[in-house]
Design goal:
Radius of gyration: 14 Å
Number of strands: 0
Oligomer: single chain
Shape: globular
Largest sheet: none
Number of helices: 4
Order of helices and strands: HHHH
Structural class: mainly alpha
Helix content: 55-70%
């Protein structure tokens, strides 16, 4: 599965309060923070690798949802993270839109 396929997979299965609104974006952001906290707990406590991988997947789920809400793709997010700057053909990220 590539990044685009994953983002479509998430979009087809995302049902959460306020989906498609700024409240939905805030919900996803808060849930992502919670999942990141759970990930940190597993890393610090040296939990089994499978628990760390599960929490990484949960964080990725919410990253995908927020990116989609902002009108961008996971590929664009990754390209920006890898280069530290704008990506070719970049459009404004509008999570409020």
């Amino acid at each position: 599965m590539n990044y685009g396929e994953y983002q479509s997979f998430v979009a087809e299965r995302s049902f959460y309060p306020g989906a498609g609104t700024i409240l939905g974006a805030a919900y996803c952001g808060l849930k992502m923070a919670g999942e990141a906290g759970e990930l940190l707990d597993h890393v610090v406590s040296e939990s089994e690798d499978i628990l760390v991988v599960k929490e990484l997947g949960d964080v990725l789920w919410y990253v995908s949802a927020v990116a989609r809400r902002g009108g961008t793709s996971l590929s664009e997010v990754i390209a920006r993270a890898a280069t530290g700057g704008p990506v070719q053909g970049e459009v404004a990220f509008d999570v409020l839109g």
